[in-house]
From TrEMBL:
The gene is merP. It comes from the Bacteria. Belongs to the MerP family. This is Periplasmic mercury ion-binding protein. It comes from Edaphobacter modestus. Residues 1-21 form the signal peptide.
Length: 93
């Protein structure tokens, strides 16, 4: 049963991958988030980017978790758009 399940998942993935690339996520350190409205600005900017699926803010850690479609954008492009609104970021850890 386990094997069969794996085979089905593989087939589904192969069929759907051109349209539905696997979502990736990246944790970004944003040292410039110094007040609670900063993440709002960043989130707004990122949600306008093509391929960004969701943005989770961890304000207390000055981090963002961004999930994105790697067929449409890259962590590099995401970091560029946070910098464009005044918040340079880098990949955490
Ligand atoms: Cu602020």
């Amino acid at each position: 049963m386990k094997l069969l399940h794996g085979a089905i998942a593989t087939v589904l993935f192969a069929v759907s991958s051109p349209l539905w690339a696997a979502p990736k996520s990246v944790t970004l350190a944003v040292p410039g988030m110094t007040c609670p409205t900063c993440p709002v600005t960043i989130k707004k900017a990122l949600m306008k980017e093509q391929g960004v699926a969701s943005v989770t803010v961890r304000y207390e850690k000055k981090e963002l978790i961004v999930s994105f479609d790697d067929a449409k954008t890259t962590p590099d492009a995401i970091m560029k758009s946070t910098a464009a609104v005044g918040f340079p970021s880098q990949i955490a850890r």
